[in-house]
């Protein structure tokens, strides 16, 4: 899931971050995302800033909504 998230985030020029609690990391960094240890059922917050921020957040929201295209 972390690899898919960073792959999608990296397709955009905007600065994109993911946060769990008070820890906020660059969503384009696989190591940062993995360090969040945000497993199933954990609440995270995404934010983006830049020219394509809205498109980036829409794409990432779709990824979450589709459960990262992984089998349950």
TrEMBL record:
The keyword DNA-binding does not apply. Keywords: Cytoplasm, Phosphotransferase system. It is found in: Cytoplasm. It comes from the Bacteria. One of its GO terms (cellular component) is cytoplasm. GO terms for biological process: phosphoenolpyruvate-dependent sugar phosphotransferase system. Residues 1-71 form the HPr domain. Belongs to the HPr family. PANTHER family: PHOSPHOCARRIER PROTEIN HPR, PHOSPHOCARRIER PROTEIN NPR. This is HPr family phosphocarrier protein.
């Amino acid at each position: 899931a972390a690899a898919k998230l960073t792959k999608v985030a990296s397709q955009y020029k905007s600065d994109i971050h993911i946060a769990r609690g008070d820890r906020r990391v660059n969503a384009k960094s696989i190591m940062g995302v993995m360090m969040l240890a945000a497993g199933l059922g954990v609440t995270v917050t995404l934010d983006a800033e830049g020219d394509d921020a809205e498109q980036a957040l829409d794409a990432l929201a779709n990824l979450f909504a589709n459960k990262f295209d992984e089998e349950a």
